[in-house]
Amino acid sequence: xxxxxARYLAGELTPEENEELEWAMLANPALRxxxxxxxxxxxxxxxxSAAEESEMMERGLARIMDEPVxxxxxxxxxxxxxxxxxxxAAAAVLALVVGGALLYRGxxxxxxxxxxxxxxxxxxxxxxxxxxxxxxxxxxxxxNAGSKVTYAEVSAGGRxxxxxxxxxxxxxxxxxxxxxxxHTGKLDVKVLGTSxxxxxxxxxxxxxxxxxxxxxxxxxxxxxxxxLRPHEKVVIPIREMQKTEAIVDRKMVAPDPQYNTVxxxxxxxxxxxxxNEAFSDVSKKLERWYNIHISFEDKRYLQDRLTAYFKDQxxxxxxxALQISLGFHYRIEGDTIHITSK
Length: 342
What we know:
Blueprint: H1 2-9, H2 15-27, H3 30-43, H4 50-65, H5 80-97, E1 102-105, E2 108-111, E3 122-125, E4 129-134, E5 140-143, E6 147-151, E7 160-171, E8 180-183, E9 188-191, E10 195-200, E11 206-213, E12 216-219, E13 226-228, E14 232-237, E15 249-252, E16 271-278, H6 279-290, E17 293-296, E18 305-311, H7 315-326, E19 329-333, E20 336-340
Parallel strand pairs: 7-8, 17-20
Antiparallel strand pairs: 1-2, 1-4, 3-6, 4-5, 5-7, 6-7, 7-10, 8-9, 9-12, 10-11, 11-14, 12-13, 14-15, 16-18, 19-20
Helix pairs in contact: 1-5, 3-5, 4-5
């Protein structure tokens, strides 16, 4: 992975390597933070030569890794492959440095400098917040707005399981002897070592599971178990779960070519992405994301379709953009946004 990061910074990734890196960042969102930090470092103004830059990086890495620095006998231009190695080393170190927990508040990101596992039995995110936490077994959990997980720190026989309400992205530590089971109240997801997203909000009409890598099995009472393979998504209408033979929507997923992210997991990267979604569904996401309420005084806009991308934008900017797209009017009163025709 350090080679891919270095090749990216050098601007020499092949299309195949770029896709590999994108999937790697989706499986481990902290990797994207590393890449962005390295990019900012790389683009920052520098006053020294390539050799001086390399020497400074060597000193910085040595300080981080607490190693002695060998001062070069003379100043020479560094070959590109050596510079690559410097940036690859920086990538590896920074992956550890920025691998700590991330806490999202109101669309902003705050770094929490602790990787200690949780000690409680419940994690809750209110509307308007998102969070990251490492679980006691070493698995990683990203929790979207308005979501909750409950779990037992120690289970009989080493069984790993939790209950999810809302939406979460998981990076489950591989342990074939102790499967990880996620209960949503409607269905169960069984995994061994996997990165995937589950969306199971109580008021939604569907439950979605998107698999980034690994393998998961989805079961529910009376249903036939569904095995997901990497880059697959399944959408199960809740009404279908009462039937013996449920009709589910199963499809492949890939990074959106326009926004360069997998839409189903874009929230982990603090991105709001909609692709041909009904305004009624978009409004639910906005309510959770910004901790607001949207009231449709003019119902004709409910089924209008939207395609949009937002990152680190206040709700007014988002509503202004949607207003231009659909032609509605709106007013904000307290924490409620009223959608009107005039």
